[in-house]
């Protein structure tokens, strides 16, 4: 029996900053951000969007297409948690009207959280093939205004339905995992923004890629030329390009061209949305599906990395008819609906969102009708509403 990704939905908030504007404001050469970092735009979450609301909005992209009664597991991966105790997934479960018998919780290991959720969901469905699982990754990447990491921020969520006989990607058996207790990126409980040793994190990311990719190929008897595409966790697109360059080094011309082309397709959404931590790898997968023109049966490698640090390489095969399950036009329209902010507006929106609204204050959303949003706290309980 094959188990894998049956549905995939992306959400990003309704505001963005252009990287050329940001470079000019920070007195940097725009090409450093556009080429050196590889980012064109960056989504900005105002105070009415958080991990929960974005996760609901991502799942709404496919919820009407699935049998909700079959969902036995709902896992939420995030490093932008909204509560130290209660899982974000419970708010989502209520909004989506899932049955009370669903097993639901939140997981954390930096950007690895959604992969952790996906692997648990895969094993759950293998044991309970008549049931399905929803996994959500949802994050706001915040390094702070005028920091080195500022250009690698972003906001968004990816939700996926994991199912037997999936319609998009059948996951292959086996994986290669690697972890070490290191301090490349972390966010202490007292801070809303991340602390990062950017150069070190880049070095560890590439080192873990080499280890897991080499081990995976050996384990499965695969060569680089066997892959039709490799997708990467993309904190910024240049990071994935560096890993892809390692993968194709010394390969024949056809393999190099094939994996460069597929990487170009896989980075498109990330270059406009920015870093969405847990969901970045899966936004890259979606971007590949929407722009890569890959035939069914294509072998796709997936490299997941979470600072701290934990990495995993695994693979899947594209299922016949996968194109019918995705909607590139709708995703483009979602990006195009975003309002462009000036750098000053972005700074104000960003800094306001770092603060908790006064308890009892009702927040309103300026996003489209039908979008879920955080409406403030009432008696210190977070309220989520749908825009009418
Ligand atoms: N034209 C073209 N390229 C230019 C340029 C120009 N005018 N000026 C500079 N560049 C290039 C540089 O040569 C450099 O390229 P290489 O990386 O290939 O050498 C690139 O632009 C970046 O330049 P710098 O290294 O000088 O940039 P920086 O000091 O401002 O730092 C950064 C960049 C380390 C990515 C920083 O933005 C950062 O710390 N970001 C956050 C950390 C991060 O995302 N780490 C990634 C892995 S960790 C992870 O994945 C965890 C997670 O998501 C949470």
From TrEMBL:
Residues 176-243, 264-352 form the Hydroxymethylglutaryl-coenzyme A synthase C-terminal domain. This is Hydroxymethylglutaryl-CoA synthase. GO terms for molecular function: hydroxymethylglutaryl-CoA synthase activity. Signal peptide: none annotated. (3S)-3-hydroxy-3-methylglutaryl-CoA binds at residues 29, 143, 242, 275. It is an enzyme of class 2 (transferase). Residues 2-164 form the Hydroxymethylglutaryl-coenzyme A synthase N-terminal domain.
């Amino acid at each position: 029996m094959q188990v894998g990704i049956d549905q995939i939905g992306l959400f990003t908030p309704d505001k963005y900053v252009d990287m050329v504007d940001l470079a000019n404001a920070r007195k940097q050469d725009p090409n450093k951000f556009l080429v050196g970092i590889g980012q064109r735009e960056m989504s900005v979450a105002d105070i009415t969007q958080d991990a929960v609301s974005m996760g609901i909005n991502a799942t709404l992209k496919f919820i009407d297409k699935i049998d909700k009664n079959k969902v036995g597991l709902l896992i939420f991966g995030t490093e932008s948690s909204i509560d130290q105790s209660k899982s974000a997934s419970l708010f989502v479960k209520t909004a989506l009207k899932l049955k009370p018998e669903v097993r639901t919780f939140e997981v954390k290991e930096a950007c690895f959280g959604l992969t952790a959720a996906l692997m648990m969901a895969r094993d759950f469905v293998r044991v309970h093939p008549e049931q399905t699982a929803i996994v959500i990754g949802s994050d706001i990447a915040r390094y702070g205004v005028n920091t080195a990491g500022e250009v690698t921020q972003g906001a968004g969520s990816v939700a996926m339905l994991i199912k037997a006989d999936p319609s998009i990607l059948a996951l292959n058996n086996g994986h290669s995992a690697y972890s070490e207790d290191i301090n490349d990126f972390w966010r202490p409980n007292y801070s809303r923004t991340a602390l990062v040793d950017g150069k070190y994190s880049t070095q560890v990311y590439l080192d873990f890629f080499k280890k897991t990719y080499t081990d995976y190929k050996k384990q499965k008897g695969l060569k680089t030329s066997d892959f039709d595409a490799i997708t990467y966790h993309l904190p910024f697109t240049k990071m994935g390009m560096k890993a892809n360059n390692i993968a194709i080094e010394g390969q024949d011309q056809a393999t190099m061209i094939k994996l460069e082309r597929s990487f170009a397709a896989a980075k498109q959404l990330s270059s406009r949305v920015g870093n969405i931590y847990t969901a970045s790898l899966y936004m890259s997968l979606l971007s590949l599906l929407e722009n890569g023109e890959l035939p069914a049966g294509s072998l796709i490698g997936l490299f997941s990395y979470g600072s701290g640090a934990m990495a995993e390489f695994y693979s899947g095969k594209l299922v016949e008819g996968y194109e019918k399950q995705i909607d590139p036009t709708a995703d483009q329209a979602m990006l195009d609906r975003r309002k462009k902010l000036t750098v000053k507006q972005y700074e104000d929106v960003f800094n306001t969102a770092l603060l908790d609204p006064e308890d009892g204050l009702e927040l309103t959303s300026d996003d489209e009708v039908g979008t879920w949003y955080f409406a403030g706290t009432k008696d210190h309980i977070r309220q989520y509403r749908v825009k009418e």
